[in-house]
């Protein structure tokens, strides 16, 4: 066996093992969601059983989890639509400015991203109650945009600084304004990076639990908060929780499969010095 082939084979085996290890909780959750509780909690675990989708039906039909899915999607999409344009323009400006002030601002953004979210939950709740925005989409979207901006700005800036200065100089010689340089030169180049930033922003908003627990209510409850209501002494709740957990992953899996080509290009763009 040639050394190169041996190395590739060992790498392939290692990746398969790593993938299987990461998929184990997902597979276990799916099996739990289609088992009766007596089969799901049997010792040793039963590998041969009669599957049932009753718990999935209860979650999405009887308990109307589709309403919580709509709330999650609306809040997530709203967060991306507001956060991404603001972060993109901010990142472009910070990538073009090489001053002490820009570096201080970047450091402040990083410090804000590292700030514990639990300490911000009460101020956001008090502000939302003062403005009568509790249990509204506006409160959740505004909070998520504020929390998401530091990460999105840093991420988009990493794409903008990969653009050679010669392109900006050529555009300036052709008579382009700063806005035209941003819109006609920079944006088309970093388009793959926009997909990556949009994905991370969407995942951040879609999976948010703490602020959704504090700022939402019966009308705007999201899927993470709804799933947390199941569990405890009733073993049926564990099967319902497993069914809901599998259901909450499906939209993101479908989204990533549809946009896989753009995401790979975006990640490769950010990893190569151009």
UniProtKB/TrEMBL annotation:
Q: Which UniProt keywords apply?
A: Cell membrane, Membrane, Transmembrane, Transmembrane helix, Transport
What InterPro entries does its record include? BP-dep_ABC_trans_perm (IPR050901), MetI-like (IPR000515), MetI-like_sf (IPR035906)
What Gene3D superfamilies has UniProt attached to this entry? MetI-like
UniProt protein name: Carbohydrate ABC transporter permease
Membrane topology of this protein: Multi-pass membrane protein
PROSITE patterns assigned: ABC_TM1 (PS50928)
The compartments listed are: Cell membrane
For this protein, the record's Pfam families field holds:
BPD_transp_1
- Which CDD domains is this protein grouped with? TM_PBP2
Organism of origin is: Bradyrhizobium symbiodeficiens
The family assignment reads: Belongs to the binding-protein-dependent transport system permease family.
Q: Which residues form the ABC transmembrane type-1 domain?
A: 69-259
Listed transmembrane segments: 68-92, 104-125, 137-156, 193-215, 235-259
* Major place of residence: membrane
């Amino acid at each position: 066996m040639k050394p190169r082939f041996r190395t590739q084979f060992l790498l392939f085996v290692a990746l398969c093992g790593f993938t299987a290890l990461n998929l184990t909780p997902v597979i276990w959750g799916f099996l739990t969601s289609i088992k009766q509780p007596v089969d799901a909690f049997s010792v040793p675990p039963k590998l041969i059983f009669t599957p049932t989708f009753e718990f999935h039906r209860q979650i999405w039909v009887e308990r109307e989890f589709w309403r919580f899915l709509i709330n999650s999607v609306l809040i997530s999409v709203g967060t991306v639509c507001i956060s991404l344009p603001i972060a993109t323009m901010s990142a472009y400006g910070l990538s073009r400015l090489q001053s002490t002030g820009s570096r201080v601002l970047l450091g402040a953004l990083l410090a804000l991203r590292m700030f514990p979210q639990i300490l911000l939950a009460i101020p956001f709740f008090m502000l939302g109650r003062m403005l009568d925005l509790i249990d509204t989409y506006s409160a959740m979207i505004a909070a998520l945009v504020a929390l998401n901006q530091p990460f999105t700005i840093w991420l988009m800036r990493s794409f903008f600084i990969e653009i050679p200065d010669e392109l900006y100089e050529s555009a300036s010689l052709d008579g382009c304004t700063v806005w035209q340089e941003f819109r006609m030169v920079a944006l088309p180049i970093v388009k793959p990076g926009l997909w990556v930033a949009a994905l991370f922003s969407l995942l951040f908003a879609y999976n948010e639990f703490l602020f959704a627990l504090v700022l939402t209510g019966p009308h705007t409850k999201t899927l993470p908060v709804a799933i947390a209501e199941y569990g405890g002494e009733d073993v049926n709740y564990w099967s319902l929780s497993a069914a809901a957990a599998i259901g909450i992953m499906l939209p993101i899996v479908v989204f990533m499969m549809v946009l896989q080509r753009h995401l790979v290009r975006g990640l490769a763009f950010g990893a190569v010095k151009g």
